[in-house]
């Protein structure tokens, strides 16, 4: 089929789709090294054979054992095998959280197991096969694509990002509702259910890149990088929500009003906007991809704490991140504290 994604070898592009790919699954009682281990074991009622397959070193070994004991395969296997495969794929792509996002990211391309020796699960090598594995994967892909948190954000790609504080991994995402692009920057590795130091940082071109002293954004971003590098693990979600959601050009208009005496809240409201238009619900999808469910959140903004908790993220600690106060942003910081409820220790009066 045109524009199809062909997969087979686990080391090749799109190898994560292969049943031989090294992603474990747990059926509620036992953890299996791969889908292939689980699938081959389900062919048998004999627990000695099941145990041998379970302990086999590689998926190829598990496959070979399934063939070796072919005469002892359960009599109803032909009727059960697609259900077993569907269940195995469901476990694989939901228990290994990033995989589900990778699977959704293959849309809209047809998925084809390009297997020369298999014309049932694969395409037979020349397209004549039933490609049942590819079709089950496409069915699961459709289910996940409309299910939270997979539908909240679409993963695009990852790459290394060398910085002054070390090499971070940069992960790109797209909001499917708005088309807005967001980035997550991760450092180090963490265990599932371990609280991870993170920051939700809304884009601020003037503060982050143009060295503006009208705000504290650039200073907070640099401190977040430093804190994460010092701890050894963490993540920065860099969110494209310029000007607390009003956009760059409206932010410049707001700056002009501030030059004439308005504070940051009054300026936004004078332009017809709420003081803060940012949303954080899609962050649940990014954190799910990153396998983060508990966080230590670097923020002074109670709205961010509340938003993550409402999204089901366990905020175990708020880490203050007060940086960059100067004579040009004292009134800005005071307005954030008195009008937006930001938890700042020292502010100048308005």
UniProtKB/TrEMBL annotation:
Its cofactor is Zn(2+). Zn(2+) binds at residues 204, 215, 217. Its EC number is 3.5.4.25. The keyword Nucleotide-binding applies. GO terms for biological process: riboflavin biosynthetic process. GO terms for molecular function: GTP binding; GTP cyclohydrolase II activity; zinc ion binding. Keywords: GTP-binding, Hydrolase, Metal-binding, Nucleotide-binding, Riboflavin biosynthesis, Zinc. GTP binds at residues 199-203, 220, 242-244, 264, 299, 304. Residues 158-320 form the GTP cyclohydrolase II domain. It is an enzyme of class 3 (hydrolase). The keyword GTP-binding applies. HAMAP family: RibA. Catalyzes the conversion of GTP to 2,5-diamino-6-ribosylamino-4(3H)-pyrimidinone 5'-phosphate (DARP), formate and pyrophosphate. Belongs to the GTP cyclohydrolase II family. This is GTP cyclohydrolase-2. It comes from Zooshikella ganghwensis.
